[in-house]
Amino acid sequence: MSTNRTVLLTGAAGVVGRAILREAPGRPLRLISMVRPGGSALPAEAEEQLAADLAEPRFGLDEDSYRTLVRDVDTVIHSAGLTEWGLPDERYRPVNVEGTRRVMEFAETAGATVHFMSTAFVAALSAGAPHRLSETNVTTNYVRSKLRSEQLLRDSGLPHTVFRPTNLIGDSLTGWTSRGQIVQLMSDWICRGRAPFLPVHRGNRIDVVPQDLLAKAVLRCVELDENSGEFWVTYGEEAMDMETAVEVCAKHASSLGRPLTPPPVTDPDTLDPEELRRLPPLARSYLSVLRDVSEVTRCGGGVLPTSMPELRERYGLPHIADTEAYARTLAYASAHLS
Known about the structure:
Elements: E1 5-10, H1 15-23, E2 29-35, E3 48-51, H2 63-72, E4 75-78, H3 89-110, E5 113-117, H4 140-156, E6 160-165, E7 167-169, H5 182-191, E8 198-199, E9 208-210, H6 211-223, E10 230-233, H7 242-255, E11 265-266, H8 273-277, H9 281-299, H10 308-315, H11 322-336
Parallel strand pairs: 1-2, 1-4, 2-3, 4-5, 5-6, 6-10, 7-9, 8-11
Helix pairs in contact: 1-6, 2-3, 3-4, 5-7, 7-11
């Protein structure tokens, strides 16, 4: 195992970046945390911070600072990116695509390995996908930007790995997260009894993964000095179905004194557009996102590809039941993110 690697972490203020910062102490790594100028403050674990901008040449640094970074860094964990869904294609290019290109230029000059954080949703755009992802799907432009970045790395010949996590939830043991994401928002809405139904295609798994498992896998990969591989950070066949996810929500709601009647699970292809239009705006919005995420999963085969067994054996990831981690995420979110 290599020791004392110097790692540049892009997107250190994001959900993945902060999860990596929490898992890094005690490991034989020097971590330089890159954040946008004027961005969010980082926790105490981020001992070395670098204000830099992926959208600018040389990350917006002066020549001496950039040269020093090139000299010192031998590994890049590239987690920076625009992750909001539903934006025009051109909004994703400056950071998600061109930012990756600048990371590659830096890595080539520094002789560094790149560990890239992609998304498991790229399965929906694979050549062998059983269904075609619609152009109007809220995730399409985001997923394409990640797919383009993967292709850039493949074409570059640089030593690199690709991690493809599904939707992230909180820490597997505590439920902690640096901020609420789509899973927490949707789950809170469901737990409050506001979902008239849940649009999910038959056979789909509800695949969510604790953020600390991703962070552990990435850091262990760095420690072992690995420079190739594609890893699907998902539960695959182990992932819960929608009925099980609703059971977890119902138990959580009950613990808060809110008895929840599980909403019915409905095939999205049978939805009546007129019925949707009659719903309150927030319900329409959430059901639309749930429908689109279900479409992404169906296009990926209903059950996402997974590397979890390999990650457990290769990198020592703990065997955490997704239902237990999901329950802890809901408890943390209700206590700290409401």
